Amino acid sequence: MKKINCVFDGACEPKNPGGYIGYGSAMFDENKKLIVQNSGYKKENPYNTNNVAEYMGLESIFRYIDKKNIVDSEINIYGDSQLVINQMKGDWNINDGVYKTLATQCRVMLTRLIINNNLHFNFIWIPREKNTYADKLSKKSLEAHGIKSNN
User: Fold this and answer.
1) Does residue 150 belong to any structural domain of this protein?
2) CATH of residue 38
3) Residue 130, domain member (yes or no)
4) pLDDT for 54-99, tens place per residue?
5) Is there a domain that residue 151 lies in?
6) Domains of the chain: total
7) Which residues is 79 bridged to in the sheet?
8) pLDDT tens for residues 98-136?
């Protein structure tokens, strides 16, 4: 079974909630070679939050796995959001909040990928300072739209 390592991050700037969203993700093979990286942006909206941004980063990983029909693999997903990591592991409930719809969609995608693609997922929390690659990707789209990060 091949191994794939992924990182994700999200930011809501210059205010949280209600700012602009930037998110990023990347996937690496077991030899640490980059498979794909992604940055995205969402316009300012009162429902934008850091949690929504983090989930958008994770969702971009799931969408790539689905699009490329990656099968028979162990997928390690690293992120600095305790909320996302623990909810995807099933350790925490998905409660009410503006992130709920996206979190539920990610949970459904996760289940479908496990069943249909014979994938095994590990969700690993890492401190923010060890998530610099995904953090830079999450800020990239914001900066391209002239949004300065507070962090």
Assistant:
1) no
2) 3.30.420.10
3) yes
4) 999 999 999 999 999 999 999 999 999 999 999 999 999 999 999 9
5) no
6) 1
7) 8, 125
8) 999 999 999 999 999 999 999 999 999 999 999 999 999
φ, ψ of residue 58 in degrees (nearest 5): -65, -45
Q: Give the neighbor-by-neighbor strand order of the sheet with 34-42.
A: 34-42, 20-29, 2-13, 73-79, 120-125
Average of pLDDT values for 40-61? Answer: 97
Residue 102 lies in a domain: yes
Q: What is the pTM of this model?
A: 0.97
- Give residue 38's identity as a one-letter amino acid code: N
Task: Give me the residues paired with residue 13 across strands.
Answer: 20
Measure the N-to-C terminal CA separation of the chain; round to a whole number of Å: 38
Q: How far apart (Å, rounded) are the C-alpha atoms in residues 49 and 27?
A: 24
Asked whether 117 and 68 are in contact (CB, 8 A), the reply is no
Tell me the two tokens of residue 23. Answer: 């998110």
At 20, which amino acid appears? Y
Does the pLDDT of residue 140 top 80, yes or no?
yes
Q: Tell the residue number behind the tokens 């028979």, with chain if given.
A: 72
Which of the 8 DSSP states describes residue 101? H
